[in-house]
Write a structure and sequence with these properties.
Helices cover 49% and strands 13% of the residues. By secondary structure, the protein is of the alpha+beta class. It has 3 domains: 153 residues, Glutamine synthetase, N-terminal domain (Ubiquitin-like (UB roll), Roll); 358 residues, 2-Layer Sandwich (Creatine Kinase, Chain A, domain 2), CATH 3.30.590; 130 residues, Four Helix Bundle (Hemerythrin (Met), subunit A). Strand 20 and strand 21 form a beta hairpin. The chain is globular and about 100 Å long.
Length: 698
Amino acid sequence: MSTVNALFGSMVFNEGVMQSRLPKDTYKSLKKTIHTGVPLDISIANVIATVMKEWAIEKGATHYTHWFQPMTGITAEKHDSFITPADDGAVIMEFSGKELIKGEPDASSFPSGGLRATFEARGYTAWDPTSYAFVKDKTLYIPTAFCSYGGEALDKKTPLLRSMEALNKQALRILRLFGRHDAKRVYTTVGAEQEYFLIDEKLYKQRKDLIYTGRTLFGAKPPKGQELEDHYFGAIKPRVAEFMADLNEELWKLGVLAKTEHNEVAPAQHELAPIFTTANIATDHNQLTMEVMKKVAARHGLVCLLHEKPFDGVNGSGKHNNWSLCTDTGVNLLKPGDTPHQNARFLLFLCAVIQAVDDYQDLLRLSVATASNDHRLGANEAPPAVVSIFLGDELTAVLDAIEKDAPYTGTEKIVMKLGAHVLPRFVRDTTDRNRTSPFAFTGNRFEFRMVGSSDSIACCNVMLNTAVAESLRQYADELEKADDFEGTLHTLIQRTIRTHKRIVFNGNGYDDAWIEEATKVRGLLNLRTTPDALPYLTAAKNVEMLTRHKVYSGSELKSRCEINLDNYRKTVHIEAKTMLDMARREILPAVTAYADTLALGVNARRAAVGASVGGYEARQIEKLSALSEKIDAAAEELETALDAYHAMSEVQSSAEFIRDSVLPKMAALRAPCDAAEKLIPAKSWPFPTYAELMFGVK
């Protein structure tokens, strides 16, 4: 344990390091900046920069970088050395407060969605002091926000920080109404469970589709998949265990609270779960985790696949986003209390979440919309594309009793009048039995299960934070004017339950009957694909809400819609081109070569023995010939569709064309290729099969 204690956070410029190394007044000023957002004076920044540089050099650092999260990719960084020329021709190591606070990377190659012209290269990175700096690969990493020359957000962190501030502002208004003046800040806390696949690096390098797209575009199902459910929580293979041990050490050095690791449902699939922390730090840590996973895997001759659906026909990978609300005094606002006062507060915050998810279900859906996640959502191992909330039977019964002013018939029969009765205790374990729900209450938090494994958690938390902030704003506006606080509160909660109970569903989210009920009876949205979902980002009600809380500007919303649609169409376009390349240059030659081999063998045997032999081979040749024709025809149709796509320029219509025309033709090309794989000997197939990929790591 002492070894882990010494290891954890050893490469992080954290609270302990700051307190021990910074002058007392400097540390006090920095803490004030972190907790209240007060701007940091440049003289204070200079002191911090000097101390941070000295600490980093002690850890082996020679460079520093402003580390940020652009709107595409995992993270971005530009490294500058600490060296500065001295008068005697030597160098000295310097790092100023100005360099700490702000950087100026070239922003011209990052997508802006029209926020700036291509020739306007300048962009700014701004230090986020609420997220700790760290040393990795001999470089001091400084977490930053990234914005354009005009101040528009070009990253995922800036809107996240804005949303956290919006929620803090409205949550404090509610707490003051309940007499809680000790809390100075309300934080959103997040723990992001990360699912991933591990495959052998040698096999990976033989598959163009994995290299170019992150997923397999071809592949017949192996004889054994996940049918026996023997992989989930099963014994971890030695090679994987070595990877996990190495990964833990690297993450612990960087202060990442890696806690739980296990095999997931699909062969070669695994999960890493951290302990929760504040939303912005959790986002940084998850980005860092994905990066470190890939690097550590390479050390072990492995490749970490973060794609949501790397293998067809087996479970894909998600990232459960465990979200809650906590005060700086340590109170979890989504934990049922033991007094009437606390009960009422809990129920109000619970209702705020329910209303937010119902009112802004479109924003939550589009926050997880990507080309890769479209393959996963609704695929019988992931939540459906319809957003709903699971509360569990007992809590649902409590809300029902409040709505109807009827006795609660659970553990005790009471009329649920807020401020008069204690909320009945219910067993926490009974709140988390529905793994099919997109948004599930799990005792003291909500678990948003729609997030894709390769995606940043920033986007979904931005939307969730801001939507809940809007609910709380409406509640505070009403309650602050109330003459009868308890009566108004009771009426407000009753009204919220009645208005928004359609979003609560405790049944099987995988059932087609639920989708029918959700859309046709309850009026919920079923935004199945990214082009379906993303236009809602610029819907009037969403623009009004997001701009009201100053999380996005109108121009930033338009840019993000365009960037994400553009990323969708380009992603699928790359996949389609890769399919054509593999089908024509690898699969078709293999199919025809094997058919020719069979034909030569048949002719030779018939010449030697007679015309009666070779029936099996002849049938195989016939099947392979038919499949090769289908492959060729399907490839031609896909190429024709891509030619039509190339002539299109408008981003929404071209994304829809990709969805409606290109993806179906990709599926039509895959089918005969996968059928051919089943007829050809393994040694004659041009690349590793599913069986080799999923069961190749021992």
